Structures are given as structure tokens and as C-alpha cells.
Amino acid sequence: MNKKMRLLAVPTLALGVVAMAGAPAMADHAAGSYSSTLGQLNGTTGTGTVTVDVQGTTATVNLQVNGLAETFMDGPYPHVQHIHGLAMGTCPTSADDANGDGIVSVTEGAGKYGGIQSTLTTSGATGPEEGLNLALGGQGGSYTISRSFEINQGTQDALDAGTAVVVVHGLDPATAGVSEEVFNSPSDLDPKLPLGATSPALCGNLAASQMGAMPNGGADTGVAQDTDSSVGMYALAGGLVLAAAAGGTFVVRRRGSN
Asked: Among 4, 31, 52, 138, which lies 20 to 30 A Cα-Cα from 147?
């Protein structure tokens, strides 16, 4: 099994920290259009926009992401993204870095954006159980996910309550501002993955659209433009290499100049 495939072998229990399994869709009270301009977290320099149109219990999602880490293991870098919800409906800031390590982790941010309600996969299933399925994540630094799927009750409830938040995960150590030791410390979701690999990069509240206008982060969307806590994802193009240490733990090291 190659290293990329080993990254896909994430224990299901690792998602228990943030995944909240929703019941089958039983109502259509969330019908309408929602959108957000995603704000940057943990030193991310990328951008993103998302729209979600709901008719009955079918959601049509269009997510556009640009400027994240490009490559991993000589291929496109896999980013995962989700609709979180049923919490405060906002995005974390550096003040939520409870342990002071310079990275706002998934669990440190979950108090603001809540558990996974739907996974925005490129194809196939969209439940919380797919939350760390890298094979179904967005590929590369710039990509579009455009698809329709049946949404579960939890996603409908979060949209209806105004607490639905889209989070794109995966950070770039080239913009980190933290040591490799911190970046490569065990993820709060799976100790075989680096903390920086699973931490939130982009975030925005899905606000009900008004007259077709796109919300612009900040106070309107609950997005925090956070420049204090800076970390990022693996990028070979940024002079970084990903290596596997003994025991299957993945680490990121800067390539020395010769």
C-alpha cells in the first residue's frame, strides 16, 4: 500500500470528535438559497466561495476554491470539506487556540462551527462518515465541486437555524509561522496524520441569500480573517516534501538548500 493510500486508511472512530450522524431527510424546511465567501484560517492564503440551493430535500452545491496547497506525493493535493452545524454558526479565531500551539485545530474550532453534518465529496456518499475520505476530497490547490445530493436532517436543521458553516481543511506549512514539530504533531482526529493536515483552512457561515447577493465574510457570514494563528498544508511547489516516519506517521520537512 503506497503512502497516499495509507492516508486514506483513517479509523472511523477518529471522526467521532466532530461527526454528528444525521437522520434521513424527513422535511424540506431548509428550502432556499445559501451562500458564503470563505475566510482564511491558520495562515491560509487561499480563497473560496460556496452556494447551496435547496429544493425539497435535494441540495445543489457549487464550491470554488483557489490558492490552497497544490501537490502531494507527486499528485494533486486532496482537501476535504464539510457542512458543519448546530453550534454557534461562526468560524474560530486565534483566540480559540486553547493549547496555545499556534494552530486552531478541528476540535478547538468545533465549539464555533459544530459537528460534520454533510461531507462535500466530489462523488458518491456525502455523510459524516466520509469526513476524512481523501479520495473523495477536492484535488489540488484550485478546484470546483458542483453536484446535487439528498441532504440529511441535520444539514437541513443547521441551514434552517442559520448555523450551517462550510469548512475546508488542509494547511500549508510554507505559510505556517510554527515549527515543523508543531505542524507534524499528531492530529486531533488521527494520530497518524499531522495536525496541520486536518486543521481548518477556509471557513464561512452559509447565510440565506438576499436578492442573489454573495455575503462577504466578516460579520455578515461569521468568518474571521485570522492572521495570528498560521499553519498550512503540504506543498511540494513551495519547497516542501512529505516523508513517512517509522510506524506510518506522516511528517512534513522543508527541503534544505544545497
From this structure: 4
Give the strand pairing for 47-55 and 207-208. Answer: unpaired
Q: Cite the beta strand spans of 42-107 per DSSP E.
A: 47-55, 58-66, 71-72, 75-76, 78-79, 81-85
CB 101 within 8 A of CB 182: yes
Which residues have CB under 8 Å from 105's CB, separation 6+?
Answer: 187, 188, 195, 198, 199
User: CA 19 → CA 84, 124, 213, distances in Å?
Assistant: 9, 18, 31
Residue 251 is predicted with a pLDDT of: 52
Mean predicted confidence (pLDDT) in 74-78? 81
Q: How far, in Å, CA of 178 to CA of 198, rounded? A: 16
Q: Is the pLDDT of residue 14 over 60?
A: no
Task: Report the SS3 class of residue 108.
Answer: helix
Q: Compute the distance between CA of residue 68 and CA of residue 10 in angstroms, rounded to an integer.
A: 22
* Contact by Cβ (8 Å): 116, 165: no
Structure-block grid coordinates of residue 192: 497518524
End-to-end CA distance of the chain: 32
* Mean pLDDT value across residues 45-50: 96
Tens of pLDDT along 166-194? 999 988 888 866 788 998 899 999 888 88
Q: What is the pLDDT of residues 241-253, one digit of tens each?
A: 233 332 344 454 4
Enclosing H/E stretch for 136: none
Q: CA angle, corner 113, sides to 71 and 84, nearest 5?
A: 65
Rounded-to-integer distance, Cα 237 and Cα 74, Å: 10
